[in-house]
Amino acid sequence: MKIEYSIKLRRERLENCIIRFLRITGILFFIIMVAFPFYWMIVSSLRPLEEIVMNPANLGLDIGKIDFKAYYDVLFDHGFLRYISNSIYVSAITVALSLVLATVGGYAVTRLRFRGRAFMSYSILIIYMFPAIVLVIPLYVIFSYMGLRDSIHVLILVYLAQTLPVALYMLMSYFKTLPVEMEHAGLMDGCTRFGVIWRIIIPLSAPALASVALYTFMIAWNEFLFAFMFLDTPDKFTISRGVVQLAGSVHLSKQLVMAASVMVTIPILILFLFFERHLVRGMTAGAMKG
């Protein structure tokens, strides 16, 4: 019996070691697959143009030869300061409108009783049955006919239509987990429905609101198809539209395209790290004391 138990124990340890090895190997493999393109993009944007032309396959980076000229050219010579400000404006307005409308709408669907409530809660994601390429053509025709196509604010409206259903769905699911008794206590203390939302629902929903804000910002910041179809004036381009225009200029070096791509990616990474740090902290925000 002791020999059998020892053999079984060794076999379990061997299986655990193999599983752990495969898990670590898989994680490292996916990390390399995700990080390598970003590393190559950064290295290509910081290497001098002469080295890229002479040895394009070199993936090393000499710290003493780091060159930020590509970033300077992209920002000041190719109008990317304007593109970045346009993207910040579009993304910020989209996030603000999505959070306000999704918070009020999600609370109404989960807490209030009205006609069509069930239909609204079940059909809230129906817009995602249609891919963006199907919607862009009729929207292009409609906005062109109305003379509204080359407008940043129309782009915000389209992004809002894209992000609001998912934001509503996410907040609805979170609001259902919140205790109704706290809202009843607030109403008994004299709060209105909007007072309950402001003083109770929003503080308790900080993690969900942070997730919705990050998701909405990522969609508005990275979206290209609608920006490409609706915007014609370079002064109104978003940063993704500007990168594609820059990449289409055959007389420019790919070093500039890599620098512009880094500018698109870095803000999303910073925001994700910032929101990730505050997600757990927001879980207890607004909790009752006493």
Q: Keyphrases for this structure?
A:
2 domains, MetI-like fold, mainly alpha
Overall description:
The protein is mainly α and 290 residues long. It has two domains: 2-67, no CATH class; 70-284, MetI-like fold (Orthogonal Bundle). It is 74% helix and 0% strand. The protein contains 13 helices and no strands. The protein is flat. The N and C termini lie far apart (59 Å). The model is unreliable at 281-290 (pLDDT under 50).
Give the SSE order as H and E letters. HHHHHHHHHHHHH
What Rg is obtained from the alpha carbons, in whole angstroms?
A: 25 Å
Largest sheet: none
CATH superfamily of the largest domain: MetI-like
CATH class of the largest domain: Mainly Alpha
- The percent range for helix content is over 70%
Low-confidence stretches: 281-290
CATH topology of the largest domain: MetI-like fold
Oligomer: single chain
Question: What general outline do the C-alpha atoms trace?
Answer: flat
How many domains would you count in the coordinates?
2
CATH architecture of the largest domain: Orthogonal Bundle
Number of strands: 0
Structural class of the helices, strands and pairings? mainly alpha
